[in-house]
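Instructor's aside before we start: the two examples that follow are unrelated to each other. I chose them only because their records fit on one page, so don't look for a connection. First example below.
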Amino acid sequence: MSFLQVRNIHHTYFTKDTATTALSDISLTVEEGEFVSFLGPSGCGKTTLLSIIANLIKPTEGTVLLENKPVSTLKNDIGYMLQQDYLFPWKTIEENILLGLKLSKQLNEKTKTNTLNLLKQMGLNGGIEKQLPKQLSGGMRQRVALVRTLATEPKLLMLDEPFSALDYQTKLKLEDLVSNTLKAFGKTAILVTHDIGEAIAMSDRVFLLSPRPGRIYKTFEIPKELKRLSPFHARNHEAFQGIFQTIWKELESLEQTTEKSRTPS
């Protein structure tokens, strides 16, 4: 039995006058410890699918099971990391990273110590825990957001374009840090990204979604020689360009199809 099972997901957004189908017949599985990415044209439903898996949106049809249990019955098993860090500006870094533990009633001396140690493992030491978010750079704030997400020990981590607002050098460093941290903790993760290189460098598999309504168009298995490397080194491996070009051409084809369908005949 797969760790995560997404079964026949269909989702339509309804307004007073319209019905827009965002996702149609999405089925996939993710194994424990696996890192997968959702890639596709803008508006293909990547974030909607992520939100359904995280139980933030109830799908029109279909089910999502984590360890064979409906995600709707789970409490603290899924962590979410977004493009914005959403740190509370009036709280110290320590108060921010302990917030999830406090809300889920898991805060005690042991979990507090573990979380502060994780902050140091992220390279955030020297009294940073007593500072306010405005005193940190964007990359440092995202590291804090990751610590806050991991503090409650979620079984599944959802990453919704967490590096897209960062400069390129910081983004590359954080890709390595996040990848190495998740591997060290044996975490299962799903990444939504527009960046083909990021998806290849960080993932075990990449799911390419078709334009709206989103469907699984193709699944790409990342070569073993890339999986063994950190994201930074994977980008420099000779096999990287081959898989990049393959996914690029498929994505270009999907986007051209989308443009043709929008052009009046």
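Example two begins here.
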Amino acid sequence: MNSPLSTPVTPAEAWQRLREGNDRFVSGSSQHPNQDAPRRSSLVNQQNPFAVIFGCSDSRLAAEIIFDLGLGDAFVVRTAGQVTDDAVLGSLEYSVGVLGVPLIVVLGHDSCGAVTATKESVDTGSMPAGHVRTLVERITPSVLAAKRNGLSEVNDMVVEHTRQTAERLVEDSRLISDAVASGSAAVVGLSYHLAEGRAELVSSIGNLSTGAGEPAAS
């Protein structure tokens, strides 16, 4: 079915739309919006996504499904362990600077294999071979930070890594930083719970207020 909702234009509106979609997914009442032939045809020459979702590549973390989205709703970037590099930053800057997306989502999840591998490497002092080593090296600061805070469970480390990744996006990109400072964009970190299907807010950078003095998320 096609969604009658207008495209969110503020960070708060975009966040509210994602929350509503995730609520539907959790309750088993997904609407599967914007997945029909007219929607497909309308997007041939243009796109106007309302969020960019930067998440882990895990097969259980399909962004359009867990937020009940359709064609043209989200600009999606995925790497194992939501690890950033120049290509990721360029993709996120394109979504904000060219497409005008008002919300960047950093999406981690329970039992992340990349974070688990990093924890094992930190615990044993043994690094994996090949390019997996690069993933581990980039996640290691988050694992060490979690350990310094007395956290030893992988899922707690996932939350720390999600928070740190969101912060680094703003620190490493002048374009994203300026968009957040101007109020035209915001960055949220979400931790997805595999069993429940819930995407929990763990960090936010920027203005997510509704404009009526109430927060868009608790």
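The domain at 11-205 is CATH 3.40.1050.10 (Beta-carbonic Anhydrase; Chain A).
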